[in-house]
Amino acid sequence: MDRETIMRAFASEADSNTRMSIYAEKAREEGFNAIGDTFEEISGNDERIAGVWLERAGEIGSIEENLQKGIDSNKQQLEFYQGIQDEENEAVITAITQVKENQIDMLQEALDGLDTETWYTPGTSSHWLCSRCGFVAGGNRCPLSCPLCRCHQGFFRPHRPGRRPTPPPPPPPHPGQRPRYGGRR
Ligand SMILES: [Zn+2]
């Protein structure tokens, strides 16, 4: 298989992974919990298959390389959204653009502070965020485990409380109908 075919297989599995996960949530909303489980299981299978292709494409690197790839791909998405002229979806695109900017900041912050020698060193931050459950611990020393979900210190990252909050979602385009997921209707 050439690289292009491998990346096409990856894109197809990644698409299906997201789609199945969204369909699972929709099925559960409609009361079909067992069907939700089926969608969720297939979504998980597809995520792992996507991972097989991503690895074969040589796209899974060191933590530094992966952070840089994350920054690059989010920058590409940001440019894509910024280039769209679409009045109907303008509010959604503006909100997503801000999310993308936040994501780039988060990844850049992680890359800049990656030195594992200092990552958990007392005094390097006044707050620590558990990426598993969202708990924020105060103090200049990172907790050894999460007081809320009990996970290991490795799930924590230095947290800057002043980070720009995610913008509120725009109002639904058509009164009376509430799309759960953005995009064109
Ligand atoms: Zn936690």
In short:
The chain has 185 residues and is mostly helical.
Overview of this protein structure:
53% of the residues lie in helices and 5% in strands. It has 185 residues and is mainly alpha-helical. A hairpin with a 5-residue loop joins β1 and β2 (136-138). It has three domains: 1-60; 62-114; 117-167, Rubrerythrin, domain 2, CATH 2.20.28.10. The chain binds zinc ion. Zinc ion binds at residues 130, 132-133, 135, 146, 148-149, 151.
Which SSEs are present, and which pair or pack?
Layout: H1 3-29, H2 33-56, H3 63-82, H4 90-112, H5 116-119, E1 127-130, E2 136-138, E3 156-158
Antiparallel strand pairs: 1-2, 1-3
Helix pairs in contact: 1-2, 3-4
Question: How many structural domains does the protein architecture include?
Answer: 3
**pLDDT averaged residue by residue:** 87
Spatial order of strands in the largest sheet:
2-1-3
Which ligands occur here? zinc ion
DSSP strand content: 5-15%
Determine the number of helices (DSSP H or I, runs of at least 4 residues).
Answer: 5
| Regions with little confidence, pLDDT below 50 for 5+ residues | none
* 3D shape: globular
The computed structural class is mainly alpha
